[in-house]
Write a structure and sequence with these properties.
alpha+beta, Beta-Lactamase, 4 domains, 6-stranded antiparallel beta sheet, 5-stranded antiparallel beta sheet, 18 strands
Length: 716
Amino acid sequence: MILLERLRSRLASMSSVEYLPERVSMLYRLSGSDVPIILVAASITAFSMWGYIGINLIAMWFIWLGVASIVRYAMARLYRRRQPAAEDAAQWENYFCLASALVGAGWGLALMLIGHTPTSLQELTITFLISSVAMGLPPSLAPSPKAFTSFILPILAPMVAMLLTFGGGLNTSTALLMLVFATVLLGLYMSNHYALIETLAYGHENTLLLQKLRIAEKSLTAALTEQKLIFDTAAVGIAFVSQGSVVRCNRRFAEILGYTVDEIAGQTTGVWLQPEADFMQPGGRAHEQFVRGENYSSELELRKKDGAPIWVSTDSRAIDAAKPQDGIIIGIGDITERKAAEAALKQTKERLDLAMQSSAISIWEWDARRGTIYLDAALAQMTGDEPRERYLTLEEMVPLVHPDDVEAVRQAQIDCIKGVRPLYRIEHRLKMASGDWVWVLSRGRVVEHAADGSALRMTGTNVDITQRKRAEVELLSALQREKELSEMKSKFVSIASHELRTPLATILSSAELLEHYSESLSAEDRLKMLHGIQGAVKRMNAMIEDVLIIGKAEAGALQFEPKPVDLRDLCHKVVEELRGGVAKQHVIQFDHPFERDNLNLDEKLLRHILTNLLSNAVKYSPVGSTVSLLLTERDGQALIEVADQGIGIPPEDQARLFESFHRASNVGNRQGTGLGLVIVKKAVELHGGTISIESKVDAGTRISVRLPLTQSARAA
């Protein structure tokens, strides 16, 4: 099986067109160069066979050899002259095959003409064998299987056919012998051709390898030349250090350190590197990275030749990580100017930070490419955090801004980024570490744009304006208070003019009547007039007292002076006083499920509370209606509740009931100053209590006052 595979492989190689241009060139070259050798071999053969073969056969044989040699020699000369291209190899092989077939056919026909009788068969056989060998077929025709076949078949076929035609044992044996000989020739040819193909393959491979070697050699030479050029002209200094000494360096390396290349070659690194152990010796930082196969990069302060200090950036690596001391490549760049600039920048930054801190100003910067906002340490200090620089995303920045200001800040940023506004300016609140809020004035502008005009970077400042904001609030509060006071004054003048004019008119008219008509008046009429004067004076006095109480409360001078008071008894007294006065035409119902005796309360303020609440209930209720007063204890507090069946309070007026001089819109011509409930509220607050009102128009009002049972003095 293996032999068949090998035979099939060799036959395939014989019929292959691989290396055809080389084989055709060899075919023509051998055809021209082997003619002298063939003629010499033929002469020796003819001399040896003289007397055994007929002269006519030898003569024809020499004629045929001459003609065949001339043909082959002519074809070789023509091929060398034409020098055909490689793609024409198959065509020139066909030319050679045609010539070989013609030459072989000529000799085969000549042998048939000579060997017309069986007696000449031995001569023909010997002649065939000699001619085949003398022509040197295997070595000269091995490059071309087609040429071999074209030559042998025209000679072999006629003779074998003729011998088999004559018949007889001798002729048949001779024919078979020729076939065997032809088979041997074929085997020799196949071996020779296969060896030739392998030789050509090896030669082709060697040629390719040689070409690759030459290309690699050129590339290596170019790379070395380029490397040397780069090494010598590099803008950074490069040196090869072995065993702590400079083996080789480029011009820039020597210039940076103030040497020439020749001066620094052979110098130890200790000449310019201090301390040497920190960089080159085992145990140093660089050595630890070298043994791990890593680069060592750093910035070092070195010494130049003249002793001047110089800062360089270094990047070095060991050639062999196992033995760093045997070879290290070091690259250095002069960064002295950069270091000086950094030092100056650092000093300037420190001064700027100091100025910012002392002036409560911080710097921020927004970078669209990174999507972050830079906040300096001054802002952290402004908000009570540990002073540090921060880079926050827009999402991380949102929680630091007051929720009410987030949308306004975002809109201001968008307007500035899109160019709607040239400057970004907004006042907003930032969250402090304590949870409080600090007011800042944030200003900035776009300082860098992309090619399409979009904003890439915006920078600005934050200024602490908390004190200014507080001053503004206080000023606005003062202005509001001033406005309220002005309104109160206007109301007071209006009410006072009305409330004082009426009793004064009563007093004046009664006095005039008494002056001019006292003798004609009865004692009862004079008494009524005197009582009217007294009532008018009391009314004026009550109004003045209310104004004084409000004035004291507003000024913080209304005092809370608690002492033991029987609350239930005090309520009885006030109710009885009103029943004999303003409540003569009303029913006051007093319920007091209250078991406490003396409480620590301010009796004077309590009288104001009870009197004002009951008086208002009577004033705004129909004649004959019932006013109820409830005193009880609820949820650990004393509850005083006054309810009436009066006109009620409109909803739009309920929110302003505790404003000075404000009266409900449905009071009509009923007398009043609008101070009663204000005084009640102040008195309740001084006790630490609360007051609430429930009212419905034309259905009555219920006012509830809750006082704590354990009191502590409070400021007005």
